[in-house]
Amino acid sequence: MIHVVLLGAGNVATHLYKAFEKSGEVTVKQWYNRNLKTIETYKNQVTITNDLSKLVEADIYILAVSDDAVSEISAKLPFENRLVVHTSGSVSVYDIDMKHKRGVFYPLQTFSKGASIDFSQIPLCVEAIKSKEDLPILKKLAKAIGSKPHRVNSDQRASLHLAAVYVNNFTNQIYRIAHEITESTGADFEILKPLIKETARKLDDLTPYLAQTGPAKRNDKKTIKKHKKALTDPIHKEVYQLLTKSIQKTHGI
Amino acid sequence: MIHVVLLGAGNVATHLYKAFEKSGEVTVKQWYNRNLKTIETYKNQVTITNDLSKLVEADIYILAVSDDAVSEISAKLPFENRLVVHTSGSVSVYDIDMKHKRGVFYPLQTFSKGASIDFSQIPLCVEAIKSKEDLPILKKLAKAIGSKPHRVNSDQRASLHLAAVYVNNFTNQIYRIAHEITESTGADFEILKPLIKETARKLDDLTPYLAQTGPAKRNDKKTIKKHKKALTDPIHKEVYQLLTKSIQKTHGI
What we know:
Two copies of one chain form a homodimer.
Chain A: E1 2-7, H1 11-22, E2 26-32, E3 48-49, E4 60-63, H2 69-76, E5 83-86, E6 101-107, E7 123-128, H3 131-144, E8 148-151, H4 154-183, H5 193-201, H6 208-211, H7 215-218, H8 221-230, H9 234-250
Parallel strand pairs in A: 1-2, 1-4, 2-3, 4-5, 5-6, 7-8
Antiparallel strand pairs in A: 6-7
Organism (chains A, B): Oceanihabitans sediminis
Domain DUF2520 (chains A, B): 122-247
Domain Pyrroline-5-carboxylate reductase catalytic N-terminal (chains A, B): 4-85
């Protein structure tokens, strides 16, 4: 059994709490949040507290708090030499106060409020400064909630976090632009969904380099000109031009 | 039974031929291509020809040829007042010679060489100038290969074709950029695949507008600054800046 103390009450903390509770291998010994109201509904299931000085002993302390709070809260923890990890993609492991054994437990996925999260679909990036000593338990914790643990150093985690902005936020904005384009003629955005899914699925078989098709890759100037002419929104046109340039640079055109 | 004559031998023509053959409701009476060699392997299954003057009678003539060839080949067809359709996303239905009954049969999907195509996952955009008369058989043809037909006018089809460049080619290039970013630190691009799939899947529940998250949407200036600093490739940085601007414009930030 892994004994955990959870700190924070945002999306990540709440989803982790639920996953730990469901797992037979993890006990959440205590749940801390500065504002008790937020976690009050859980008080019959788990000991809750808003007092850092009352934290109990555990195998792992998980700081699922905002990026900016990692350093401050870790410094305030009233003990030392225990394993303290944060869950952020972009915060350094060294932001955790050096009196602790330090690590990272970063679930790489988009968390939506309300949506139930299937951790078996979420890679868990784990890191520990004393890796020999502390990585095994972080891996065990990831597996206990059905996730696949990946050992990832701080540079790699930062690049995954940045890349995630591209494949999630930016891709989603590309969908949004497509939505605006189809709406401008009353076409049904629904019709694009199989293509959207196939574009993502194709990566099971091919790298994005090999999966590329279309007018930019073919350097089909006639179609590119027609498309540019059809685009009335200046930012959509800029996106068209820039991504066409990017594709052509990638493929040496 | 729907009798079809197929013209052309590219990706779309070949995939359509295979789907028609598999369907119990369609007979390909003839397959035309200027170069007979390309379709020679099929000569024991179907009558092949490279001579337009020898085309037999059929319910539908499908021009699955390059965009530029639609007009020319349709003018050369040695008959009139029969239903002739093209399969292009961007060519006008009026590019087909006016001696024919004219229409469009446009499968909206990315076709990869070699990959087997499941038409049940492909929306078919159908259009006919004499819609009352000619649309029913185009819809029937789409259903015969398991596809869902969508009546789409020329403006809508053009916007779907343009939007498809965004959600397929541009999204795929975003994946490519993410691949380059992760490779720069030796991080494993594989770890991003669940996020890529979830980003596409989320559209089942939410519009792209509502699905948006991340630093641009939150206007998290600290993270945006950190990300820009980490990007060394000038085009990747431009893409970051432009799509951040686009997200912020969409969300009024």
